[in-house]
User: Fold this.
Amino acid sequence: MNRKGVTPIVATVLLILIVVALAFIVFFWARGFLSESTQKGDRAVTVSCAGAEFEAEVVRYATECPSGVVGNYYSSVDINNIGNIPIYGVQVLEYNENTGDADPLTLSDQPFVGGTITIGKSSYVCLGRVVDNEEAFRIVPKLLAQQEDKKVVYTCPEKDGITIAYVGI
Assistant:
């Protein structure tokens, strides 16, 4: 008989190699998910975001934010940490009440002047422009967290922020 094909031994070795290769692929793929957890203290940073409490206020002409033109000043957002979780920075979103959209602003000062805002302290960020009357902003906290052996800045979800408005006189 003239048989052509793969012997049972070669077929078995090929199947074992394929299974081992797939096992390695699944292992390294799953390992990426497990090792990516970001911690703030002894808990997940997302839990800390929900507990971050702060007050914010828009200052139209902030003397600490010069515009580059003598005598002109940009606006700032003053942040006061009233909770027990240090805040590393904020993301400022310009909020459009008509559409419900929130677009991020580029801040001229980030992170906070003086570093992390600890419990009971306050700081500011410069907006890089002067705000108009009745503009609304969504302020989202950023926390400094630990990921494996390095520190990372984690921007909290938008739901953990607060909405403020500047109402001019």
User: Anything to note?
Assistant: The mean pLDDT is 81. DSSP finds two helices and ten strands in the chain.
